[in-house]
Amino acid sequence: MANMKNAVIAFLVPLPSIFFYLTFLNHCDSEISNGVDPKFQSFWSTLWAWCYHHPLLLANALFFLNVNVLFWVIGQIQSSHWMIDPYWTVIPVMLVHYYATHPLAHYDWWRSRIVILLTWVWSIRLTHNYFRREKWQWGTREDWRFTDLSQQYGNQWWWVSFFAVYVSQQMFLIGLSLPLYAVHNVNQPLSIWDLVAIVVCLCGIVIAYFADTQLHDFVSRNNKLKGLGKPPVPVLDNGLWYYCRHPNYIGEQLWWWGLVVFAWSLGYGWTFFGALVNTMCLAYVTKLVEERMLKQESRAEAFRLYQKTTSVWVPWFKSSPSGVKNKNA
């Protein structure tokens, strides 16, 4: 019952932004293209004109009201901030279609369709991985980092969560998706750099898919071993995880930096800032994940050896720690 309720909430929650934007598109032609005497402009005419001339501000306003405020209110009611995780995979798809359909959009048709297709492929892969990890349930748990923060802030978490969970996500997602805006703001023929960007994006998607699948299979095997009363394997140390400790993060970063290549080739190199901040954030998350692994007594020794022999991010061959023979789990 709870699973169905959360699924319905998740499907209904973006409708305010969708309906507002469709209403804007329906009215903007008559209100703006035909022209209205400023002395007789209504509130709605002024609003539609603002939406027309400020596509980036409109995207931020809709995100703030529909995600930050509405998601936060629902999170307070449910005592769980689970919904931002599945929507992390959906919001970029909504943004790319928003930028492509805004009346001020100006772009090369082929580049637009390529980027939209790539964004859908990325989203489907990440959404599938999320629900596979959650055993196809809606809202059964929130991100463990949010749970840790709630314990850290105690009674203050109800208002801190608004900024830590939602406002921070707006800065990340809007910033990371700026290349999608750049692609739909310049009408320039395809070039060799578009091919480079496509290759980088696809490599990121493929690497992340195989890394997450290998991690899922590893966790599933360990759960079966626990069910049989056998000790689980402490560390995943094969496949892509043989060459670096966080190949899933590498894949995700390649995806976003691939989008930056699209934007850079169109003269929007400044959009790299979102990908850079995301890389810095993943570096911090890497630290948190590894500290969490070391706190688990059954894994600590094996993971320390894994740290000594295996690269953090950049895939590379294993090294042998001094005095300890290389071990493969």
TrEMBL record:
The keyword Transport does not apply. GO terms for cellular component: membrane. InterPro entries: UstE-like. This is Steroid 5-alpha reductase C-terminal domain-containing protein. It comes from Canavalia gladiata. It comes from the Eukaryota. It holds the Pfam family DUF1295. The lineage of its organism: Eukaryota, Viridiplantae, Streptophyta, Embryophyta, Tracheophyta. Keywords: Membrane, Transmembrane, Transmembrane helix. The keyword Transmembrane applies. The chain crosses the membrane at residues 54-75, 82-100, 157-180, 192-211, 255-285.
